[in-house]
Amino acid sequence: MKLTEEVVVSVRRDAEPQEGDIVRYHVDNMDFDGMYITSFFDDRGFDTKESVEFHEVFVFETGQLERFFAFELRGVLEL
Question: What DSSP string describes 12-62?
């Protein structure tokens, strides 16, 4: 399911998502809409001394749980 502009009233770009929020992520010139589940930090497999923040999201279009980098978040959607 892709949320159309007619369904989305606004996108709060400065909001930190909370569990159950409808969110949009932008990856490789594509938007993914889904329901925010949780975030976590992971430092395994990265060459930096800092951990990387990920968001776990149920993506409507695929019907699967996906992980996105936190910086890929475009905003919390208001329907």
Answer: ETTPPP-TT-EEEEEETTEEEEEEEEEEEEE-TT-SSSS-EEEEEEEETTT
